[in-house]
Amino acid sequence: MKWLLKIIDAARPTFEEGGKLQILNPVFGALEHFFFAPATRTIGAPHIRDPLDLKRVMSMVIIAVIPCVLAALYFFGLRFIAMIIVTYAAGLTVEAIFAMVRKEGINEGFFVTGFLFPLILPPNLPLWMVALGVAFGVFIGKELFGGTGRNVFNPALVGRCFLSLAYPKTMAASWVEPSHELAGSLLTWVSPPLDAVSGATPLALAKQGEMGSIAHQLLGSVSGSAGETSAILIILGGVFLLFTRVANWRTVVSMLGSFIVLTGALILGGAVAYPMSGVFGPVIWHLFAGGLLFGAFYMATDPVTSPTTNTGKWFYGIIIGSTTVLIRNFTGYVEGVTFAILLGNIVAPILDEIVIGIRIRRLRNEG
Amino acid sequence: MKFKGGYNILLKGRPASTVKAMPEPKSLYLPLSSERFTFTDIRVKDGQKVSGGDILATDPDNHAVPLLAPRAGTVHLKAVENHIVLEDVAHREEHADIESKEMQHVERQMGAAGIKRYKLLSLGAWQFFHDAFTGALPDPLGTPKAVIVSTLSLEPFLTRGDIQLHKRLLNFTRGLEHLQSLLEYQPIYMVMPNISSEFANLIRNQIRGYALVKMLEIPLKYPYDHFAILARRLNLKPDGGPVWAVRSEGILAVDRALTLTKPCTVRIVSIGGIGVNMPTHMKIMPGYPIKKIKENYIFEPAARVINGGILTGKILEDDTLGVDTECRGITVLQELQEREFLGFIRPGWSRHCYADCYLSSLRKKFEEKYTTGVRGELRPCISCNYCEEVCPAGIMPYLIHKYLYADMIEEVEQARVDLCVECGLCSYVCPSKIDLRKQLIEAKALIAKEKEEIRQEQLRQEELQKQQEEARKLSEEKAE
Asked: In chain B, what percentage of residues exceed pLDDT 90?
């Protein structure tokens, strides 16, 4: 790949300070470092470094969501590719503009947001809304706080939250009944609003007293956001993230655990009643329904917006899990994971503050 | 405190367990500074002939710890900057004893126990002792609260205890007895990888009845052998008096100084790393020309030569010509040469990763070829918490990093940056490539400086008050 390096080296002066395209330096830098790792050397001890860098961390997340992306393609058709492209184009524009203004490099964080955002949208959402949502999410949710590493909220969820509050009707009308044929909708293009078969999500149906089969939820042949329908594929990717330690298992375990315990307790206590009988059945049904698993594995585990301390992560997960139960069962909304995680994002710094305060008090007596 | 954090990095170039005698050099280049010492008080004249064991210089700031002449030779003071050069080096019978006149003088002043300590200091054994908490040289005349003896050296690739002790077990136990004779009732803690091993039993049998020795078994994980970590593990507090800490080579030096009354100059230094053709251990003396070591062992011309281990050592600059008195190992590392194409999506079959993000986590243990590359771009902290998980001191490096970023020095102090043992693991694991070790060390220095300034200010105030009071008294007397 020497020829490519030569081209890059030859082009560099144009983008460096004093060059004609100086303003595009962050874009050039991002491209250069995409292809070639930087040549920086350590200057003192420790003289060696771990191979893991942010690019690798982010590509691990992208690898983990690939099953979900394929499932979205299978169930909801080629239109999903267009959604990804639109997300990348709109989001990267915002990201690049901010990088140019700040004169910093473009951070890798967006590449994950660009994959996660279309996965949590209704599959039939108009493309201009996809663009608007991601631009809003990146701008308000991330860049205003200072970019990657300093954001309080998960940018993808901010974008989705904005869309569902600003365009509730379009959002609600954009659910698609997935294809039940063997070939799926692999080569079809379902586009709004004419030929779409609007399908209510399992959670919406449950509010009307109709609970579908758990097997469909497991496979993913139910209506819902593009990437959140197939429980089994989400668990597959999620477990991969846990094994590589990119996602912290504490958040996932406490979030899903508290969700299961609280839902079970509510059923046992008679506070909620489902058309499905028993305790175990409805709990598992709810676990697989909607965006709970996707949120637990991919959204809540975002290291930047979740608490840093391990103790904080336990409480963070519990807060998200139980808030989801409360929203799903006792409010007018059918789905509450987005709001629950955003609420968790708000609480995260406070949880950290408390845990760190205790730890510092303990450290004071050390040595 | 329990052990926490820590991480073993497996790199290629681990020194073999052999110890090779190096050829006798013609000239020695003794650097006037090492990790802890700066020898400013020069005791010899230009052109003077010295014999092995003579004191060439001392460090006035560190209890006059001496720089000994390892061999007989002619002194050249100004030949190379910051070095004392010994020419026409010859391996004659070493200067066997301290002059009897001086000895009597010392004995009169300090008593029988004092003489042992004087021998340790002037024969070069004392420099192997550390204060467990600060790492500095302890006061040779002081009384410690406890002594930590560690046979471990876990940082790659410093000389390990088993190599130092090979065939010298008797000397080791004798050294322990000598050490015990310096103490009254204070315990000696022996730190070993396995306290039920044959070796440990041998030591136990040998020293039974002589020394109050307690054994402590620790897992072989870097940097659990760090003296500050060991002291905290043993629940020793810094305010209760000094704790001495010494490695196996120090005990052997004690034995040599007190049994044979001979200077301790020859030491075993490891040479390891990827740039070395045959990683091994060398028997050399301080001042041994680095050029000769390079000629013998290093095949890589563009390699980085490090004085010390790979995680905490300092780069050996070209103007340092000889091995210094505290050197425990020389590590050679290849400099990063090529930029990797699409490095972040490679499977990474031969790459170690703290977070298991490469395919190699499915492999059995193996040694990786590391270079000096940072392997990524500098990014803002993403709060991944790896640095806290790996930190053996139980502090939160990311938090201190954020406080430093916001200039909150008081909070940095409260977060106990002073507990940092500078092991370098936080910098090593950071995926955002933040040099946390450097930042923490700088913060420690800054806080120490501020504290010193406050102390000076207080002294000045007190002085001023005293003067004012005296002036008032004087004027009152005059008025009377």
From this structure: 51
Contacts of A220 (CB under 8 A, 6+ apart): A71, A75, A178, A229, A230, A231, A232, A233
B382 closest CB neighbour out of A41, A50, A54: A54
Of the partner residues A55, A107, A246, the one whose CB lies closest to the CB of residue B355 = A246
| Smallest Cα distance from B142 to chain A, Å | 21
Q: Which residues pair with B28 in a beta bridge?
A: B86
Please state, in angstroms and rounded to a whole number, the distance separating the CA atoms of residues B323 and B250. Answer: 18
Chain A contact for B280, CB < 8 A?
A: no
- pLDDT tens, residue by residue, A194-227: 455 567 788 888 877 778 888 888 888 888 888 8
* Cβ–Cβ contact A362 with B under 8 A: no
Q: Does A251 touch chain B (CB under 8 A)?
A: no
Q: Which residues from chain B sit within 8 angstroms of residue A45, using beta carbons?
A: 306, 308, 311-314, 424, 437
CA distance A184 to A177: 11
**What ipTM does the predicted assembly reach?**
0.90
pTM here is 0.91
CB contact under 8 A, A367 and B133: yes
Contact A49 B351 (CB under 8 A): no
The kind and range of the H/E element at B67 are strand B65-68
State residue B219's pLDDT score: 92
Q: How many helices (H) and strands (E) does chain B have?
A: 12, 18
In this structure, the dihedral spanned by the alpha carbons of residues A51, A52, A53 and A57, taken in order and rounded to 10 degrees, is: 150
Read off the tokens for B336: 């990063």
